[in-house]
Amino acid sequence: MRVRSLWPLATLLAVLPLQAHPRHRPAPTAQEEKAIHRVEKLSDHAYVLFGQGGNVGLFVTDAYAVLVDDQFEHLAPGLLKAIRSVTDKPIRYLVNTHAHPDHVGANLVLEKQVMAIVAHANVRRRMVLAQAPLEPAKRGGLPELAFGEEDPRIRARLDIHLGGAEFHLLHLGPGHTDGDVLFGYPAERVLHMGDLFFHGLLPYIDTDSGGSFEGLVSQVEAVAGWVPEGARIIPGHGPVAGRKELLRYRDFLKAVQAHVKANPGKAPAALAAAFDTGAWSDYRPSPGFVSWENLFAVASGQGPGRTPRS
Ligand SMILES: [Zn+2]
User: Keyword Signal on this protein (predicted)?
Assistant: First the structure.
């Protein structure tokens, strides 16, 4: 069922037992919350919040805060506490980088506390589809401001002007999904890349949600071409990166792409076996989620980008 198919990263991070639906999990204790969330300051007005699920960006302007992604619903109390340790300003906008539940799971809670949830139109479309089987009381948290076209190849941009700050939301094409958004704060050279960037982990490309390996490579190449020295880059997963690490990720993706092109017709397992994984040992497989074989399956168009659920 569609809802379950949207929980890939839960497996990766060993956050949730597969048989448990996260909506039914009890709220974590205060001690668990303390252990889960960690705040790192990136610039004068930008922060990243680490927890379980996708990394969260927090941007604090003169009068308001802007949040980028929100992890899981059951972690919302701890996430809010972490936000309040940084600022007591109201959250004006919540931006979703894409529709996976480890990035939008707390929308249901936060929609009552923000003026608007903002995302690419395909994020809203996929969330509506994912919620269709649920009972009405469990639906909600949908993006209210949606931009971009259903055809993910069409680029889209939305600027947010808030007080003295300016944020750019960019959709460059299909990549991790068909609704990925890059969130930039140029004044302080901070960029949230969502799951277009798995830092230190083999990337997951969700072809069931319109993702594309070739698209991912070209987007990462494009960003690597303009991201400035000194930039702080929030990946969807993994530690904060800079330009150097993004260039390394680009080179890694291009090496995978070149290996596939040099070996037409080879099966994913054979492609993985023949690849120099030792040269890219800083990119690790995630057991039960994305293996080298999974990556070569999706890169060669021969299969999904993740290990099938049992
Ligand atoms: Zn994702």
Answer: yes
Residue of higher predicted confidence among 10 and 125: 125
Residue 279 CB burial class (10 angstroms; 0-12, 13-18, ≥19)? exposed
**Model confidence over 112-148: pLDDT tens digits?**
999 999 999 999 999 999 999 999 988 999 999 999 9
What structural domains does the chain harbor? 2-299 (3.60.15.10)
Distance from the CA of 53 to the center of ligand 1, in angstroms?
9
Find the 98 Cα to ligand 1 centroid distance in Å: 7
Instruction: Give the Å distance between the CA of 141 and the centre of ligand 1.
Output: 17
Question: What DSSP letter does each residue of 218-264 carry, written as one string?
Answer: HHHHHHHHHPPTT-EEE-SBSS-B-HHHHHHHHHHHHHHHHHHHHST
Distance 195 CA to ligand 1 centre (A): 5
Helix residue spans in the chain (DSSP H):
2-5, 8-12, 30-36, 76-84, 101-104, 107-110, 121-131, 213-226, 243-262, 268-274, 292-299
Dihedral angle, C-alpha 161, 225, 278, 267, nearest 10 °? 90
Q: How many angstroms is it from 62 CA to the middle of ligand 1?
A: 31
In this predicted structure, the answer to whether residue 78 has a pLDDT above a threshold of 90 is yes
Give 63 Cα–ligand 1 centroid separation in angstroms.
30
23 CA distance to ligand 1 middle (Å): 18
Measured in Å, residue 9 CA sits from the centre of ligand 1 at 7
For 191-234, write each residue's pLDDT tens digit.
999 999 999 999 999 999 999 999 999 999 999 999 999 999 99
How far apart, in Å, are the Cα atoms of 208 and each of 198, 211, 298, 306? 18, 7, 11, 11
Residue 127 identity (one-letter amino acid): M
